[in-house]
Automatic annotation (TrEMBL), chains A, B:
GO terms assigned for molecular function: acyl-CoA oxidase activity; FAD binding; fatty acid binding
Start and end residues of each Acyl-CoA dehydrogenase/oxidase N-terminal domain: 178-285
Protein name: acyl-CoA oxidase
Pfam family, one: ACOX_C_alpha1
Organism this protein belongs to: Myxococcus stipitatus (strain DSM 14675 / JCM 12634 / Mx s8)
The UniProt record lists the keyword Zinc: no
Length: 780, 780
């Protein structure tokens, strides 16, 4: 009768002939994934062992009856038995269940039992273990955690291949003294995030106070040291701005509005008398200013703003007026609270003639902060982020400003009401004035880069310390040793480094721009602003998710980074609109290439095509070796080919439509997606090109290697995400597409040991980062 | 001497022979994009006109001298001249510059001049206009806006093809009465968002107050109408939850924690005495509860939590203890403020034996809200969103709870300290208990869907009213008539509709699950939770950006929607971890397919392969006609093929590694990206399959057509984004990849007129939506 119930653990353990099988008999019931069929199969294999007697066989069969699982406390007894016996053994971490069973049988007090010799036993048991269908070694580690298994790190564990300080010097290569000065300012005790949540009012005062301190330290003098255009160094100002962007982004944006947009409008649109009167007050923040361009009805299409500035020749002044509610100035930074004056963009009317958009200085508040007559201000209210910036709406009710308040560099009005300008076309004049916005776009791109660096620093450091999941019985594995985690953080890290070099190039082009290449620089700024801000949005989203719940806590700063930068893809030009601007500039350039010198253009096109076609030959399209894939020239050639091809094809599609009588606006609208694809292709090519040039300049071999890996990772990621297009055009064959994917994974593995050093090199002060999970001293 | 300076506008206009050319002479200088070469070319063409005399020719040449641009006020004079003359003409909107010029010449008072006849003149001028190289028709409209040009909508303008109410009935097809009851509750005046920003404390009280009102209305009874498992209808509860998610998401999550997680833990892990004692108090919210599973050190890997519950047989109670700081319960909703009791997951120890994770009810606060002895609570602090939910941390210092507090459905402890369970394996028992989380995952997926619907409703309605840019002289175009805008909003709209059908399937499978398919349903829930929450994150980001600055204002609610749902990809199972779980379940299933019936499995595999191979033949891979592309079976076959292929290849890669002695954890880690790709492929296939089945069931032909288009858009978008893979595997050739891209654009154009009706059909109450830019009554 006893035989008909299931055997107890005690019974099982009392049978010496079953001793070698005990570990497997335990695992059979505790591995959650074993199916009844597998348990039966194990029983069959076990019962075939020659040393078993009838009683052992019977108990064994019942113990493994899928219809009668043992009670948990019985299993717990078996486990305790194995554990206590195992303590007397010296087990290696590579022990199999068969080896463990054999050793247990050997040390069992009933050693007189006629077992085969140890090697024979192990080999016999191995067959049984195979029937079990689970990894025996892992089961042993789970079962006997006391067996001295070393905590291991999965993946490479070599030390960092370079000194972060050396790489930081590379990243700080332009205006290093400006960058270190700003870092110093930010490390002063005044620049600490408030410890408790603040209401909007307090937050705005805090930000204004910080800005005042920066002005006192001389931030304004970085931009215009001489108080006029002669000594102006916007490159230095942008470097300061980029460094400031490691800290509170409301402060950064408010600084951008006052010193950048407002200050630059006085500098570039005004003339000497404006410089003399206003620039010192801009630098000292005595006269906080606004940049009032956008209107409710016209955010992107600012050429059609409706605010009017009519010249009254009799009175000798301008009448600034908001003709309708949709013409109200919208989203104006500094307007809700601190701004005392604004550069207002309005349609100029002189002597009944409409002369297009011009900018005028319009006072908003007196020294006590009271709004002036005729000016109405409304607060935009709470936003997703940047609540330290006081955005407001402005209405002007026939507000009169002196004739001198016209910023008249590009268009002048005499006292008698005669208008003059060196630029005849309203349109072209307006776009020349818009040139002042270019510095803003360059700055937003750089601030996006800094915010992405902050997010990556937090996420990479956290991923290097946080452990989750791991092999049974061993220490859990660091997040950054999980493959998916490497891909989600190291690809964006490569892109961030790539952008660092591309933006250096942009700033240089901007600072050295001439009238000839101004349009090209504007397009470059538009494209990189869009690319960098979208990249920041994606990086910060990924960083937030990669930090799990910790990333959701305000204390860890990722929420603020994400929310504050989200508008970067909208302000200073909506990204989608900017991308179309880039494409149109490429198209103009394309047309001119043919117009200026038809023969040269055609020859060049043929040469370009020939070089690119080399990649289309089946041999090249199939090359899959690492050496070839990690050849920057190869990567770049493909990106160039794509850009040229998209350009030629969109030009063809447009010509076809126009020839068929489709009006330009509609024709462009019908190929909008194509235009955006072209711009993306163009920007990616420029970024990779600049990254390659940047790496070339680096001397230190260690730095060159790690930057080279990042550059390959960026280049191959571009090819990976564009894989559909490249295959479609015969540049990449199936085997190569697969090889590219694998190479990306491989590069991540190679970069893994350097990941923390790569974010340390960003040199973000801990007080700016301020995320408990991402501080420098936490990393090992 | 006069001839050496540039001619004035007056001079130009005084020459009757130049009259026909005046519009072109104006445009030459005002079109910003004309190069000097082009201006010269125009001059050459103009001077060739036979009717010009010497003086006209001289003035003409000087007027077009690229080195001497006219002054802006001169151009303004010319414009005024043209405009006033044009007022006397009846102009069609299709007038060319040549036609305008000819008509102006005709009406000019100096009609005696010997011009050719009107048709001849127009034809002669057309040559000149061609030399100008700009679109004459657009230039005319910009120049003479008074010419009665009708404001036009670009793109299709047919009326909506169906009634939104009819489609809404389709979307509300399951539990319609529950959905309409909840909508009714939400439309009560008490459920209004506060008009001013609230501090955390107030926000929490508001949310608790709302929750109490829902409890009073009978929300709890929807889940367990009988107060026990018999009548439990979690499907109805999930439908209520999904509808609630149109409103404040803090409320939704708090409801989910209390009624969903806490209530379900009592229902499913407890036994009759727990049901009797607790469920009524859960339903009435008399006893607000928490679900304390996650720990600081173990968020994803909850099987290894460290909190201990040791049974003290003498005292007859459990001692619950937090052994270290990393074992503190983290992120526990309801814990910081309102929770009075918690379901605590802890390692159970009975009689010195470790029995794995079990759940116990542990009281936290008394009726006055005072924390009980031994319990320590800390507030998690401010989060990115969901600040109406009081997340907290919990530490237990040897807290004693009665033996009866063990939720003992799957494991019982007798008074004497004997442990029993119907599930022998600790692991399997734990995963059975985790089954309670499945409802949570299904609910999160459904709430994600609702949030995405809210975001799309706002963005689509705004895009349908907001105008920006347009052809010169015409009304600006609605955002939704821009191609890029259609792509960015209508593709996500299609995905959202697809998910609506897929989640209906998930809820049905969940409600009807049996022990046999429980694992499969869990994997389905995991996959769809990840897919739906990631989709919501992407949709809301896109919606925010698509609304520009307006989308950044808190008043328009997109910031809250984005911030509140951001954690959906993390909680109730981190998405990346869930995707691996899905892949592992597919692998287990794959193994069993062979194990259960080798012959059948092999035959089925061959049949599947054969069907899929049909698409690999060059003919099918090259088919590019709409009819073929819009064949749901074709789309589905490709998604199925990809899934099967990824499954077979990852199984092979894993086998290879294991055979080479790589331990399972490492082997899986080395193919993690592949596993995630497999899961995505699987989920996309399921979603498309369910969408197709759902559309098939719809009777109304109008609805069937529009849903069919959405389904095609979803299916083809999947093929478009996976284009690289499909080409790599010979399923799609270059021409087909291109055709798919074009078909996606075409579908967006076709769906454009229905876009607003498609979001109206979601039936989100305006009081819930509460975004001024997205309210229903604003749409035309």
């Amino acid at each position: 009768m006893v035989e008909e119930t299931r055997p107890t653990a005690k019974e099982l353990l009392s049978l010496p002939r079953l001793a070698p099988l005990v570990p497997m008999l335990y695992v059979a019931w505790t591995d959650g994934e074993l199916t009844p069929a597998e348990i039966r199969m194990l029983g069959t294999a076990a019962r075939a062992q020659p040393w078993l007697d009838l009683r052992s066989t019977t108990v064994l069969a019942r113990w493994l009856d899928p219809l009668m699982p043992p009670a948990p406390h019985e299993l717990a007894l078996v486990r305790e038995h194995i554990r206590s016996a195992a303590q007397r053994l010296s087990l290696s971490p590579q022990e199999s269940l068969a080896e463990l069973g054999a050793k247990l049988a050997e040390v069992a007090s009933e050693a007189q039992v006629l077992h085969p010799s140890l090697p024979e036993l192990v080999s016999a048991l191995a067959t049984v273990e195979a029937a079990l269908g689970v990894s025996g070694r892992e089961a042993v580690r789970a079962l006997v955690p006391s067996a001295a298994h070393e905590p291991r790190r999965i993946g490479p564990s070599e030390p960092t291949s370079f000194a972060p300080e050396a790489l930081r010097a590379v990243l700080d290569r332009t205006y290093p003294e400006v960058r270190s000065k700003v870092r110093e300012w930010l490390e002063a005790p005044a620049f600490r995030y408030p410890t408790s949540p603040q209401d909007t009012g307090k937050q705005r005062e805090q930000v204004f106070d910080w800005m005042k301190q920066l002005a006192d330290q001389g931030l304004g003098r970085i931009a215009f040291p001489e108080g006029n255009e002669t000594g102006a160094d916007l490159g230095a100002f942008i470097a300061a701005f980029e460094t400031l962007a490691f800290f509170d982004l409301s402060l950064v944006v408010k600084v951008g509005v006052h010193f950048g947009l407002f200050g630059a409008s006085v500098l570039f649109l005004g003339t000497e008398r404006h410089h003399r009167e206003y620039l010192p007050k801009v630098a000292s923040l005595e006269l906080p200013g606004c940049f009032a361009m956008s209107e409710l009805g016209h955010g992107s299409n600012v050429r059609d703003v409706k605010t009017v500035a009519r010249y009254d020749a009799e009175a000798g002044n301008f009448v600034v007026h908001t003709p309708s509610d949709s013409a109200r100035k919208e989203w104006i930074g500094n307007a809700a609270k601190h701004g005392r004056i604004a550069t207002v963009f309005a349609q100029l009317e002189v002597g009944g003639k409409a002369l297009g958009v011009h900018a005028l200085l319009v006072p908003l508040r007196d020294e006590q902060g009271r709004t002036l007559p005729g000016v109405r201000v409304e607060d935009c209210g709470r936003k997703m982020g940047l609540n330290g910036v006081d955005n407001g709406r402005l209405w002007f009710d026939h507000v009169r400003v002196p004739r001198e308040n016209l910023l008249d560099r590009f268009g002048q009005v005499s006292a008698q009401g005669e208008y003059t300008s060196s630029i005849p076309s309203d349109g072209r004049r307006f776009f020349t004035m818009l040139g002042t916005l270019v510095a803003g776009r360059v700055s937003v791109a750089c601030a996006s880069l800094s915010a992405a660096k902050s997010g990556l620093t937090i996420a990479v450091r956290y991923a290097d310390t946080r452990r989750q999941f791991g092999p049974p019985g061993a220490t859990e594995v660091r997040l950054l040793d999980h493959q998916t985690h490497q891909l989600r953080l190291l690809r964006p890290l490569a892109k961030t480094y790539a952008l660092d070099f591309a933006l250096e190039y942009l700033v240089e082009r901007y600072v050295k721009r001439t009238e000839e290449d101004a349009m090209e620089v504007e397009a470059l700024a538009a494209g990189l602003k869009a690319y960098a801000s979208w990249s920041a949005t994606a990086v910060l989203q990924e960083a937030r998710e990669a930090c799990g719940g910790q990333g959701y806590l305000e204390a860890n700063r990722l929420p603020a980074l994400k929310a504050d930068t989200d508008i970067f893809s909208t302000f200073e030009g909506d990204n989608t609109v900017l991308m179309q601007l880039v494409a149109k500039s490429l198209l103009t350039d394309y047309r001119q290439r043919f117009e200026d010198d038809r023969v040269y253009a055609v020859l060049k096109l043929i040469a370009d095509k020939a070089a690119a076609m080399a990649d289309r030959n089946p041999f090249a399209a199939r090359r899959t070796d690492s050496e070839h894939l990690r050849d920057g020239d190869f990567q770049l050639r493909l990106l160039r080919y794509r850009e040229e091809d998209l350009l030629a094809s969109v030009a063809k599609r447009l010509r076809k439509r126009m020839a068929a009588g489709v009006e330009a606006f509609t024709a462009f609208n019908q190929v909008q997606a194509h235009l955006v694809a072209l711009s993306e292709a163009h920007v990616e090519r420029v970024v990779l090109e600049q990254f390659l040039l940047g790496v070339e300049k680096v001397q230190d071999p260690g730095l060159k290697t790690v930057l080279g890996r990042l550059c390959d990772l960026y280049g191959l990621s571009c090819l990976e995400s564009g894989s559909g297009w490249f295959q479609e055009h015969g540049l990449v064959e199936a085997s190569k597409a697969l090889a590219i994917r694998k190479e990306v994974v491989k590069l991540c593995t190679e970069l893994r040991p350097d990941a923390v050093a790569l974010v340390d090199a960003f040199g973000i002060p801990d007080t700016c980062l301020a995320a408990p999970i991402g501080l420098g001293h936490l990393s090992p």
